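Task: fold both queries, return tokens.
Query 1:
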Amino acid sequence: QVQLVESGGGLVQFGGSLRLSCEASGIIFSTYHMGWYRQAPGKERELVALIGRFSSTTYADSVEGRFTISRDNAKNMTYLQMNSLKPVDTAVYYCNAESALGPLLSYWGQGTQVTVFS
């Protein structure tokens, strides 16, 4: 069974930093695109960052320059380094793995809460 295990969420002050981690098992990790999404209360889920099989990256405009997505294929790990956090970043953050075959082979972590207070 595919499993994505997230860690690193928590409570952080305005301007602070957190690093989210996602460890995948049950997939050939290097063949999957990895992503981080978030959902704030009353809002739709939104893409935060993507990293492709060959480490190309895409960021939402709202986090560009503040967040960095990375991956370590040897460890089956994906990370989201979040700096200069703002209260608007408060959300549940979800790790996603998507096969090169498309969204029919897509898996999610259970989410981790990030709360930024001012």
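Query 1 returned. Query 2:
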Amino acid sequence: QVQLVESGGGLVQAGGSLRLSCAASLSFFSLKPMGWYRQVPGKQRELVARITSGGSTNYADSVKGRFTISREKATVYLQMNNLRPEDTAVYYCNTVDNPPFGSWGQGTQVTVSS
């Protein structure tokens, strides 16, 4: 069973927008801070956005003002605006715990062209 399923990625031009969705099917996810991570080949995963169970948000400086994380029931969203080529990565959702929930989803590829 897959508990975290990301979708919504794609190929966009710089300046474009995408909305990512994460279906987080386990009930305990609703009690946890959730985040969006991204990973480029050869680099470790980077947390770019976080949202608590109460709706408070935090963002990495690199995406602040451009990305918005939100959650509704069992889905976590990432609205990505004014995309840049350096945003190109595979995007994953997971708990913001140390360590995160151990079964990562497949991720969704975001590619931003110049």
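Both queries returned. Flag for query 2: The CA atoms of residues 1 and 23 lie 13 Å apart.
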